[in-house]
Amino acid sequence: MRDARFDGEGSRIRWTEVGGAEPARVYVHGLGAASAPYYAHIAARPELAGRRSLFVDLPGHGLSDRPVDFGYTLEDHADALAAALDAAAVRGAEIVAHSMGGSVAIVLARRRPDLVGRLVVTEANLDPHPPSTAGSSGIALYEEDDFLRDGHVRVLERVGPVWAATMRLADPRALHRSATGLVRGTHPTMRAMLKEIPVERVYVQGELSGGLAGADDLALSGVRVVTVPDAGHNVMLDNPDAFAAVLAGRY
């Protein structure tokens, strides 16, 4: 396990790493998740093996520290991720990021273009104020104190066993602030940033999640939009064969 400081208090962001060829492939999880459980089985596949691979846990999630005074906005997460990549001497990486992690990766690519050579985002939030059915919206409905008091327990009971398994590892305060930041979004929006980032960009959508709003407009800007069959929000878990093929450029 490796780590890097990401704030003035000495808090550490942590990742596990597998050696291999450059450029590195950096895996980033979504809200209330952790990277290794969602991606280790993908990185080990024959068509993807041999690349240097980093599984990064964002602040407040997984194995990373969870400072009370940290903001946990998308920009804060992106800066912490940049600190990890700087400490790991990563440049021009392929960033593979899911859900909230995809939004963080888009912000990272705009703020630190030297770190990103290819961007693969899966069902990333592109617009502020997602539908009320989105997990982030359900968490952000609570005031922070209410979420800490009993909202966290209620959400864990509602989200199902797969998400709850990693959400239990996330700090409740960090989870709420991250969800609130995700719902608030960025300026310009993540969608606008994604359209302008001058690297190869792939947006992965699970077929069971329905059509991606604005897909044609994204395609016109050079984003390759891929719909994966037999998959919902967690494409890498639902259809790992197709997801690995997307990363390998064979889908």
Automatic annotation (TrEMBL):
MF-aspect GO terms: hydrolase activity
Keywords annotated in UniProt: Hydrolase
Domain AB hydrolase-1: residue ranges: 26-132
Any Pfam family the entry gives: Abhydrolase_1
Gene3D superfamilies in the cross-refs: alpha/beta hydrolase
PANTHER family named in the record: HYDROLASE ALPHA/BETA FOLD FAMILY (PTHR43194), PEROXISOMAL MEMBRANE PROTEIN LPX1 (PTHR43194:SF2)
UniProt protein name: Alpha/beta hydrolase
Organism lineage string: Bacteria, Bacillati, Actinomycetota, Actinomycetes, Kitasatosporales
